[in-house]
Specification:
alpha+beta, four-stranded antiparallel β-sheet, 5 helices
């Protein structure tokens, strides 16, 4: 669209089904490169990606030509197929249904990037459930416990 200018930053959180610890250090960088390719092929820009064994944070610069839900569908569908094709897991890999998406201003990007880069250290102190609920509360997102990700406790 001519004369359309935007700057939209979104941090997306995707979770392994049942929060299983399936993303292994030995292949996670390959996964992140694959996801980066999906984002790029959709005409979007990935600014930072990182996570731990059971979830991934992705910071995106989104253009208005795609819905976040469409991009996430492509990322989750194609990356889970790729993981299964590579036989990285002994059983079928799946992402949980849904995702978290949180927007930021340009002045917040450095802090968000540092937060994403520091995921392994962060999760030595705080579990995923607490992290995710704090996102929802900090961004004033109304939610119902029964619709949160499936948590194996």
């Amino acid at each position: 669209m001519p004369n359309t200018y935007s700057q939209m930053y979104v941090q997306v959180v995707i979770v392994v089904k049942f929060r299983q610890s399936l993303i292994q250090k030995i292949w996670k960088d390959e996964l992140y490169k694959y996801i980066t390719g999906i984002v790029t092929n959709n005409g979007q820009k990935l600014l930072r990606i990182n996570g731990v064994e059971n979830h991934v944070h992705i910071l995106l610069n989104i253009k208005p030509n795609i819905a976040v839900s469409d991009l996430m569908r492509d990322i989750k569908t194609n990356s889970s197929k790729w993981i299964n094709d590579q036989k990285f897991c002994s059983h079928k890999f799946q992402w949980q249904e849904g995702f978290g998406a949180f927007t930021y201003s340009i002045s917040q990007l450095d802090n968000v990037i540092k937060y994403i880069e520091n995921q392994e250290e962060h999760h030595k102190k705080q579990g995923f459930r607490e992290e995710y609920i704090s996102f929802l509360k900090n961004f004033e997102v109304e939610y119902k416990d029964e619709y949160l990700f499936d948590f194996l406790e």
